[in-house]
Amino acid sequence: MAVQRIGVVGLGAMGAGIAQVAIEAGFDVLGREVSAELGEAAAGRIGHFLTRKVEKGQRTQDERDAAVARLETTTDLAALADCDLVVEAIVEQLDAKLELFAELERLCRADAVLATNTSALSVTEIAAATSSPARVVGMHFFNPAPLMPLVEVVRAELSSDGAVATVLDVVERLGKVGVPCHDTPGFVVNRVLIPLLNDCVRVLDEARVTPESLDAAMTNGAGWPMGPCRLVDLVGIDVHVHASEALYEKLWEPRMAPPPRLVAMRNAGLFGRKSGRGFYAYE
Ligand SMILES: NC(=O)c1ccc[n+]([C@@H]2O[C@H](COP(=O)([O-])OP(=O)(O)OC[C@H]3O[C@@H](n4cnc5c(N)ncnc54)[C@H](O)[C@@H]3O)[C@@H](O)[C@H]2O)c1
């Protein structure tokens, strides 16, 4: 199916980024938030980011205005009824997602594809909230969605070939790199990156190196574009600990469990760049 109209449910950090990418690529987007104020605030942020692109010479004013005109927001879930694809980006809570997918199945066209941007929940379990799990697919964007090229396209146990192909086609039209994969905890990138970053934090104490030295070791010795401590600071120590806990609960592999040092930092409010302090201090 050739998708033209995309519904985005939840216009927080990820949903607003996904909506921005979609309107920039020429799709019509209807974003749904829980209140009109949140929807308007998200539309305002998107408009602001696109204005910055005009100022930097990356877009013309006309392109910016045309993209902004392709975005509408609503609080009414039923308004998504004529969307070809709906991307869910609400809070990472299974109950909330199950309730939403049951509603979306009831409200959306039978041929609409329903996608979830979940990072750590099972797409198969979310699909099971519907009686048409064939049309449910994972569409895992990375943060910030407008900048990060990768989208993992996650095939749940009962996803149809057609639904997966539709999402891969949309990802390509968004100018992103789609990597198809099966529905396993952490999908591809987090399955590899989370235990690796946990190992890095444990090495800090075992090898008694400073964060600066560990980052210098990995950038200069392993060719990483960014050191692991700087990367965890950027991701957010709270976000990383939460993702580690989710993977550990599913796989019971010790390397997935968040290192106590990171849990202590999270508990102390040292979230990294966004809180002004993590392994490093930020202005
Ligand atoms: N933040 C990340 O780094 C990241 C990366 C990839 C995927 N994800 C996933 O994306 C999803 C969203 O994460 P986020 O960081 O954008 O969260 P967020 O808290 O910034 O945004 C969630 C938004 O959803 C809204 N919302 C909640 N219930 C809703 C409903 N029923 N209908 C409409 N809107 C609703 C909230 O008002 C909020 O604005 C989660 O599943 C998360 O795991 C997050």
Outline of the structure:
Helix content is 47%, strand content 14%.
Outline the structure in words.
The protein has 283 residues and is α/β, with parallel strands linked by helices. It contains eleven helices and eight strands. It has helices at residues 13-24, 36-55, 61-69, 94-107, 123-127, 161-173, 189-206, 211-221, 228-235, 237-251, 260-267, and strands spanning 5-9, 28-32, 71-74, 85-88, 113-116, 136-141, 150-155, 177-182. Helix 7 packs across helix 10. The longest helix is centred in the first third of the chain and has 20 residues, at 36-55. The model has no long low-confidence stretch (mean pLDDT 97). The structure holds nicotinamide-adenine-dinucleotide. Nicotinamide-adenine-dinucleotide (NAD) binds at residues 9-15, 32-34, 38, 89-92, 96, 100, 117-119, 141-143, 239.
Key attributes of the depicted protein:
alpha/beta, globular, 8 strands, single chain, 283 residues, binds nicotinamide-adenine-dinucleotide
